[in-house]
TrEMBL record:
UniProt entry keywords in alphabetical sequence: DNA damage
Designated name of the protein: DNA polymerase Y family protein
Alphabetical list of PROSITE patterns matching this protein: UMUC
InterPro entries noted in UniProt: DNA/RNA_pol_sf, Rev_trsase/Diguanyl_cyclase, SulA_CellDiv_inhibitor, UmuC
Cited SUPFAM superfamilies: DNA/RNA polymerases
Family: Belongs to the DNA polymerase type-Y family.
Length: 523
């Protein structure tokens, strides 16, 4: 072991999203469970894997492989809330826990090994403590945090100084397998390395740091350090100044999760305002709370990248949700909230915006919207998320600002019959009625064969009318034809107006129940 460096112990609860979903639904351990994001499996239980269910499968394929499969949508709030008892149990056994994400936490191994006699004894004690909650866990110990996490997924205690040897035979995909240890673009790097013939972590580690730095990006340098089992990020030598700590005295005390989440968003905004003024970013965050009963609650969250305001607000919401709703001993109303940066980095560690800075414009806009939420309520501010669907309205899912941006349907599916690109710039949700007329003055309809009854020449909208210089379509659409109760038939068409007195030149029309309606406007 290198002198002066402590070992890291990682506790990993396998398939935690599926375990949490099963616990929330009070399902028996023998019931297969799969968690969906959109329409694809992102996590499944061991029983479901035995039946052939895998991550990445579509809903229908997963159900065809396992008809008894219990399906539930991904819910980070649920995962964090149910993981809090596990974190509290581990922290009561060995203090100093840091949460990487729901289902994964780390702590210093040196103190635990000294207290219990050895690293093996400490690992056994922690497994027993978590098992008492009805949760299975695996322990990994290594010199570096990333190595310890990968070791935990295999239940291995890596001897001191042998991290590189443990990592060398592992597939190169393991560099991007754990989202809490890498940026999202790590998957692209792994794909590139695999196509270059570097199939194992040891192959990548054999490259010199100069070769990696000259041919790849910054994230590749960090991944190379992970592959060589050297420190990915040295401990911060700066002690965060006290003026970076922000707190909020709750009057009246907070006893509801929605009120706690709002207070957390407000504190996150204040914290990042202070961090931006000091030109630093936060990589480890302490969430502290005091209650009416005199309890002092604290938890540390560690991140692979500098925290953003939304990331900070999410972690505060998850933590407060876990404290306020724990089943064994509900927390009394919270009287004080405090956010304290435990480790900070220079502002250069942040991703710069397109025009320089660290996204100040976006943050100012977000803070303004949060103030609007405070005035009008949380549901008053919503943002659009790209969703799956055939019409332009179906392709937008509105979610409350600050909530998880989960689409109603998977946008990556083929969606045959979808409206051709580009999409309308403005959607008319009320779909006002219009009329299409042919050259002889008769109304234009869509026939049973999906064609215009005559070429459209004139469009009437209320008291106004325009001649048409062009049109496209119609595109007929039959949805849910297999179900008489939900079956729907429609057709869409685009028409170009011959007009110089309006900025709108092209309209999207939809034909429903033998009536033409305006659905969208093109720039």
């Amino acid at each position: 072991m290198r002198p002066g460096r402590s070992r890291v112990l990682a506790v990993w609860c396998q398939d935690w999203p599926a375990v949490a979903a099963a616990a929330a639904a009070d399902l028996p351990a023998t019931r297969p469970v799969a968690v969906l994001f959109g329409n694809r499996v992102v996590a499944c239980s061991a029983v479901a894997r035995f039946e052939g269910v895998r991550r990445g499968l579509r809903r229908r394929e997963a159900q065809s492989r396992c008809p008894d499969l219990f399906l539930v949508q991904d819910d980070p709030d649920r995962d964090a809330r149910l993981f809090e008892p596990v974190v509290s149990t581990v922290d009561a056994t060995v203090p100093g826990v840091e949460v990487l994400r729901s289902g994964l936490l780390v702590l210093g191994a040196r103190g635990a090994a000294r207290f219990f006699g050895s690293e093996e004894a400490a690992a056994e004690r922690l497994v027993d403590a978590v098992s008492a909650l009805g949760v299975e866990a695996q322990i990994g110990i290594a010199d570096e945090l990333s190595t310890a996490v990968l070791a935990a997924k295999r239940g291995v205690l890596v001897p001191p100084g042998e991290g590189a040897g443990f990592l060398a035979p592992l597939p190169i995909a393991e560099l991007a397998a754990e989202p809490s240890l890498s940026a999202p673009e790590r998957a692209d790097l792994v794909d590139l390395l695999h196509r270059l013939g570097l199939r194992r972590i040891g192959d990548f580690a054999a490259l010199s740091p100069a070769e990696v730095a000259s041919r790849f990006g910054v994230d590749a340098v960090l991944a190379h350090r992970l592959a060589r089992a050297v420190p990915e990020r040295p401990p911060s030598a700066r002690r965060p100044p006290p003026e970076l700590t922000v707190e909020y005295r709750c009057d009246p005390p907070i006893d509801r999760v929605d009120a706690a989440a709002f207070a957390g968003r407000m504190l996150a905004t204040a914290l990042h305002t202070a961090l931006a003024a000091a030109s630093v970013s936060c990589t480890r965050l302490s969430v502290y709370a005091e209650t009416e009963a005199g309890e002092h609650l604290s938890r540390i969250w560690r991140c692979a990248e500098p925290l953003t305001p939304s990331g900070t607000a999410d972690r505060v919401r998850w933590q407060l949700d876990g404290w306020l709703t724990r089943r064994d001993r509900p927390t009394a109303p919270i009287t004080l909230l405090r956010l304290e940066p435990v480790e900070i980095a220079a502002s250069g560690a942040l991703q710069l915006g397109l025009w320089g800075g660290v996204g100040e414009e976006n943050e100012r806009a977000r803070r303004a919207l949060i103030r609007v939420q405070g005035l009008l309520g949380g549901e008053a501010v919503q943002v659009g998320v790209l969703s799956g669907g055939r019409g332009p309205v179906e392709r937008v899912t509105m979610v409350v600002l600050g909530d998880e941006r989960v689409p109603a349907a998977d946008p990556g599916l083929p969606w045959p019959g979808r409206l051709p690109e580009p999409a309308p710039a403005v959607l008319l949700l009320n779909r006002p009625t219009v009329e299409l007329e042919a050259a002889d003055g008769h109304r234009v309809r869509v026939t049973a064969r999906g064609l215009f009854s005559a070429d459209p020449m004139l469009l009437r909208w209320g008291s106004r009318q325009w001649r048409l210089t062009g049109w496209a379509g119609p595109w007929p659409l039959d949805e849910h034809w297999w179900s008489p109760e939900s079956a729907a038939s429609a057709a869409r068409a685009q028409v170009q107006l011959d007009s110089s007195d309006t900025e709108v030149r092209v309209l999207l029309l939809v034909y429903l129940d033998e009536i033409w309606r305006a659905e969208g406007l093109y720039d």
